[in-house]
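Hey all, quick one. A colleague (J.T.) asked me to put the 4-O-methyl-beta-D-glucopyranuronic acid job into the tracker so the inputs and the structure tokens live in one place instead of scattered across chat threads. No bug as far as I know, just bookkeeping. Sequence used:
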Amino acid sequence: MDLFGKVIALGSSPIEQSAVQELQSSIARPASVDSARVLAPWHKDSLTVVGTAEEVRKAHPAVPVPAGLAPSEYWIWDNGSDEHRLTVVAGGDERGALYGAFALLRYPLEGMTDPPEKLLGLHASPLRSKPAMPIRWVDEWDNADGTVTRGYDGRSIFFEGGKVRDDLSAVTEYSRLLASVGINGCNVNNVNDAAPFLTPDMIKGLARIADAMRPWGVRLAISVDIASPQKVGGLKTFDPLDPDVKAWWAAKVNEIYQQIPDFAGVTVKADSEGQPGPASYGRSPADAANVLANALAPHGGVVLYRAFVYNNHLDYNDLNADRARAAYDIFHPLDGKFAPNVIIQIKYGPIDFQAEEPVSPLFAGLHKTGEAMELEITQEYLGQQRHLVFLAPLWKEKLDFDLRAENRATPVKEIIEGKTFNRPLGGVIGVSCVGRDGWLGAPLAMANLYAFGRLAWNPNLSAEQIAAEWTKQTISANPEVVATVDKMLMQSWPTYVHYTGFLGTQTLTDITGSHYGPNIEASERNGWGQWHRDDAKGIGMDRSVATGTGFSGQYPPEVARMYESQTNTPDSLLLFFHHVPWTWKLHSGKTVIQYVYDSHYEGADEAAQLGNEWATLKGKIDSQLYEDERARLEYQAGHAIVWRDAIVQYFRKETGIPDAHGRAGHYPGRLEAEDARLSGYKVSDITPWENASGGKAVACELNSAQKTCTAEWTYTGHAGRFNIAVQYFDLPGGVAHFTLGINGTGVVSWAADARLPSDHAGDSSTRFTARGPDGRGIELKPGDVLRVEGAPDGKDLVALDYIEIERAE
Ligand code: GCW
């Protein structure tokens, strides 16, 4: 059955063919049953045409296509006839027609109501929309060897073994995904180590990637290493002002355009985290950006120069040192010095994609330069797709933030749209880092890629609306399902913030390693500048002008005044801007330390609640998706407890201030592995200590006669039904097996086969909860012997932290 009747393209471009293909295959989509219900009258003897406005005017002169459709804009109309329905998808250009086709597919689902007839109004009210900003790109951090930096789902879809892959079918599929939400550019390689991408062979390969993307209106961009003239070209220098260097770049760019005529441009990370840059020659970022911009300008290409430039060897003992200042200090003085086709790509916050940080003041600091906001779709600091975190609410907070530049309303979204300071070029970039095992590695994480595209198209959409659109198209249009999934998505970011960093300390993860589990001291006493400066008396970075680093003075006056004062700074950012005693009273009336306890207990409960919400969907959605996400949420709830306990026990020890509600440091029902009767297991100290309950754990050290290690405890509590949680470390390098037994009989066995980022305790700590065969708990009485038996495998030493006995509800 065709939803749209006969579908034809009016032009011959591959982009229009893609649009036709999408409309024709729409019935195969998961939500198509609902679409069919809504669109049923259309498929009788109807015709759908796709083309540019000009093509439509020529082929169907009676159709009232509006004049002046902008590039990428679409207009969708029908002739109102049930018998001979003509539907027109017209674009300001071919891309517009393609985006229109996807919008038409979304149309019945976007605002689906009961009865659905309400929506059938394309004749009276055609759909018309255009993107808010011209640059809507994803950046991938793929390396030539096929790895993906900060990617969490397998190897590169583009590269392998130093070359472009032969099979680029995944690139086609990815481009299709991108086009479906209006993304028009894709930078395919990591900003670090970009030199290998400018060799003649690689450029040939890149041209094949561009060919795969082109039918979907996605233009290829690459990251370049500013030292390429030397590294690739063999010149003695890469000084951007050297005439040979300029000539080298011009020739290289010509070589690229000969093979990729619609090449979008380049992204640059320079003088940052070990990457070479113009500073080596005393030149500025403007000097470096402009040499590339001049080479690209004749071809219509752009330079995305990243403002992520900072010194990662700061002196921790210098109370004035502040990484947050770097971007503004470096780029604000250069405003007006950049070529017109240079866009400064600014991470949303002044540090680095943290779960909570203020918006970068640099957005208000460039009035004569194009600006793009860099977001991160891959959840590097936000749970790496192993935790459910829907990012649209975080992004919206940044996009909607009113910086009050020139003391007027200047929301960040309007700055990057180019409206505020009248800049023709601007946009938003999402660091995506997809991999070939399944894009982002978790089905619900795809909502973030979707949300990114939708916000790039229209930053005024609400996070709730985007969540609902995505759920309807991807999971089910059943209103009950939509309401539940949306509630979960909307709650997920605040939940993650509640059990990780707090009040603007940033994520408090292992910042020099995996960026995944808790590691509070990892941010301190090193040159990286992600400090939170805690001690027994207080916590927070003083970034005020009066007594601190002066960072708050980089904001326009009204915002600067807010952040300058401890009392006016919102609680959520207090410790980003101020150093306060642990007993400082927040606006809520709570002390900082009590907030730490409360928010972490609440956060872990909220994480568990996500799982409970999902459980209500059983039988209402695809069963494989149900089970997959159920297991993920169970893992997340366990890891949220690891986070909670790490933060709570660390700061309780440091401050010596008890939890007013008596939870911190008291774990009723918890039996530590180090206190068990052990056979084969040896006790060891864990680093950092807060990553294990009581700072210790046990790992299996087998002698030759043994195959397994065991830990035993005698139960001394009341008789009743209980859930028994086993907290263990699922180490990489083997699949170990555990068995939980009672009085010598095995109750349940499971494999430690999770894919987790590292063998660090906080990264690998995992919880398995036994709930009994009927899910109603396990019977226990005083004197019962509980036993965990672990069979190690390879490097997985069945390491164990504790068991916890919780009354079954
Ligand atoms: O967040 C950090 C990442 C680096 C990354 C860098 C950047 C590509 O940990 O892996 O490098 O940001 O944005 O340049």
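Adding what we noticed when we looked at it: Residues 623-655 form the longest helix (33 residues). The CA atoms of residues 503 and 644 lie 15 Å apart.
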